[in-house]
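Structural prep section.
Before we set up the soaks we want a predicted structure of the protein with pyridoxal-5'-phosphate in place, mainly to decide which crystallisation condition to try first. Input record follows.
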Amino acid sequence: MADDFLDFRSHAPGYWPASAMDQWDDHKWQLKNRISGLTDLEPHLPLTDEERAGVLLAGNKLAMSITPHFFNLIDREDPDCPIRRQVIPRLEEAWTAPEELADPCGEDSHMPVPGLVHRYPDRVLFLVTDRCASYCRYCTRSRVVSGVGDQQLETQWEAAFEYLEKTPQVRDVLLSGGDPLLFSDAKLEKILSRLSAIPHIQFIRIGSRIPIFLPQRITPDLCAMLRKYHPLFISIHTNHPKELTSEVRDALGRLADTGIPLGNQSVLLRGVNDSAEVQRALVHKLLMCRVRPYYLYQCDLIKGSSHLRTSVSEGLEIIENLRGHTTGYAIPQFVIDGPGGGGKIPLNPDYVLSRTDGKTVLRNYEGETFEYPEPTRAPADALTALKDRSACCS
Ligand SMILES: *Cc1c(COP(=O)(O)O)cnc(C)c1O
Ligand code: SF4
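Run finished without errors. Recording the C-alpha cells verbatim:
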C-alpha cells in the first residue's frame, strides 16, 4: 500500500549520538533523555530569539519536555515546523490575552472530589496524573500539568473511587490527566481493576498522547494487561500527519490488535494544522493506522495561546472541505468546549437552508439544493378503502 509513514528507525538516532541507537526502543531511555531545558535544546537545534525567550519564560508556567522520538520529527531548518510549534515554547506564550482563562473549561468548579470532573450526567473525567511524556504548549490543563505552575493537581484517590462506587449514574469513566499511560503497568492495572469492579461502570476510556510522544511505551506487556479490562477505548491525540511515523503506526497496530477501539482528538492550531490539506492528510493516515478521527477541538482559551488559536470559521471551513469529499469515517466532529464549563458543543457547516412549510431545504457538499418534505399520513378513508379491498381477497 502506498503511504508516507517515515521510518524513524532508519533516521534514529537523528540528533543523538549513534550509541543511542541501541537504547532507542527503550521507553525508559526515551524518558530519561528528554529535552527539558535550554542547555539540552541549543546543541540540537538553532533557536530563534522568540523561542529562546519562550524557553526561559516557560519554567514557571508549563515545563518544556520533549522525547527524543518526537524531537527527531522537528525540521531544524524550518522555524515554522508544525512539530516545533507544538512543543517548543515561544515568547508569545508569556502574554495573556484578555479573553484567556486559567481554567478555560471550568473543570475546577465541577469536581465533586479533587481530580474527578463530573459535568455530564453519565460520565466522568478522572485526572489521574499531572505528568506527560512531552508537554504541548497549548495544553488545556496547563494550570496543573507538568507541576511547575501555581496550581497543583491533588487527586484524592480513595475519595474518588468511593464517589464512583456510590454514584450509579456514572457508566463511563475517562482516565486522563496528564497522561495515564505514563504510569507503570502495575499502577495502571490497580486503577483499571478497581474501576472495573464497580458494577454500574460499563466501560472505561483512556486519553493518551503516549502512542505519539513515546510509542516505545506500547509494549506487549502493557497490551496484555489492558486486554483484561474490555470494553476499553483509547483516545489518542495527534495534530499533524508528520506525527504518524512507522513506529507510531506499529504501536497503534498493537493497541488495535489488543481489541481496543481507537479514536483521535486533534486541536485546531494556527500554523500546525489549520488547512484542509493538512487535515485531510492527517485523517487519511489515521484511518490507515486503524484510528477513527473523533473530535477536532477549537483551541480552548488557555493563557498564552493566542498565537496558536484560529478563528472558528477556519474550523468550519475545514469540515466543509472534508464532508462529502472523503470517507465519512475520516471526519471528526468539530467542537468548542464552552468557555467556563459549557461542555463540548458541536459545530457544523450550515447544510440546512430553511425548515418551513412542512419541508426542510438542504444543500449538499457541492452546493446543490434539495428539499425533504415532512411525512404525509395516509387519510382514514384511503385506509378504509384498502381494508375493504383486502377483505375481498381472503
Ligand atoms: C470531554 C469530556 C468528557 C467525555 O466527553 P465525550 O463527548 O463523551 O467524549 C467527559 N467529561 C468531561 C468533563 C469532559 O471534558
Ligand atoms: S499530552 Fe495532553 S495533557 Fe499532556 S500536555 Fe499534551 S494536551 Fe496536555
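Observations: Residues 363 and 369 are 4 Å apart (CA to CA).
Flagged for discussion at group meeting.
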